[in-house]
Design brief:
301 residues; alpha/beta; Spore Coat Polysaccharide Biosynthesis Protein SpsA, Chain A; two-stranded antiparallel sheet
Length: 301
């Protein structure tokens, strides 16, 4: 059974100043997510599911049309604020999305096979997809073993503002032992810092392994996530800004012993677009990769 690629593409792009999911960065007008799809096809993935919002559906489909529909099956899931488990209602004052954990959950009826999760605006590189595909091939009948492709923190920062990263810890056997979502990470005065939940400044070395939302799950994830999302809504459902994150689900499963997650080693190199100023650097990197023969000048020609 071929794995599925689930692409989280419902982001608002507020820091970027527009729909970065459809911004053309490649030499022939490709978006970053097209490189991920190209790499996934080469790695043996059989389907891609886009998680988007209804209000960007037309722009999204106009941007991609049928570029790759003849090469891989394409489906859509919609992350809307009112898409909630039965018995829960939306606070009408809420406008902020529910977070990455909710983004995965809305695709639960479209996926019945192992699946990888990525962000639409991050470039992960071909080796990352090869690595996660090999992990899926090794699973056999295992259903509660998950994985993440880790990246060194220092290589995932923006020069133009703060970022959020899941800071990971693992044991000697590369089992993930914990992941904590850290927000407002930035380079400042030669140091890497973030503001913790107590509004205190804390520092990081840059060598920490972080999650860039490149996860590998089996379908068992959905039932666990739904129960945790219900618990989250029971506690925070009336709040207007609280978010339900993927690392929250994974962390709870690891602590409870219900699942295990591997930190996969890869030679993958990351870059992405968080801010408009990141665009030129990403364009330069893609052009370099094309010049090196890693990708064709036109992905779908």
């Amino acid at each position: 059974m071929k794995p599925t690629l689930l692409i989280l593409a419902a982001g608002m792009g507020s820091r970027y100043g527009g729909l970065k999911q459809v911004d053309k960065l490649g030499p022939s007008g490709e978006t970053i997510l097209e490189y991920s799809i190209y790499d996934a096809i080469k790695a043996g993935f059989g389907k891609v599911v886009f998680v988007i919002r209804k209000d960007i559906e037309q722009a999204f489909k106009e941007a991609f049309g049928n570029k790759f529909s003849d090469k891989i099956k394409v489906e859509y899931a919609f992350q809307e604020l009112n898409v909630l488990p039965e018995g829960f209602e939306l606070n009408p004052e809420r406008t902020k999305p529910w977070g990455t954990g909710h983004a995965i959950w809305v695709a639960k009826n479209l996926i019945n096979e192992p699946f990888a999760v990525i962000n639409a605006d991050d470039f992960y590189s071909a080796d990352a997809f090869k690595t996660i595909a090999e992990f899926f091939a090794s699973l056999c009948s295992e259903t509660n073993i998950y994985a993440m492709v880790g990246y060194k923190l220092i290589n995932t920062l923006s020069n133009f503002g703060t970022v959020s990263r899941g800071v990971c810890s693992n044991d000697a056997d590369r089992n993930l032992t914990g992941v904590i979502e850290r927000t407002a990470i930035e380079k400042k005065d030669g140091k890497i810092q973030f503001i913790d939940e107590n509004k205190q400044t804390q520092f990081l070395t840059g060598n920490e392994i972080v999650s860039m939302n490149f996860w590998g799950f089996t379908p068992s994830y959905f039932s666990y996530a739904e129960e945790m999302f219900k618990d989250f809504l029971a506690l925070h459902g009336n709040e207007t800004k609280s978010e339900f994150y993927i690392p929250t689900v994974v962390n709870n499963l690891i602590i409870s012993g219900q699942a295990n997650a591997k930190v996969l080693q890869s030679s993958a190199k990351w870059f992405g677009v968080t801010y408009q100023e990141d665009k030129a650097f990403s364009q330069q990197k893609l052009n370099e990769l094309v010049a090196q023969g890693e990708y064709p000048a036109n992905l779908w020609a």
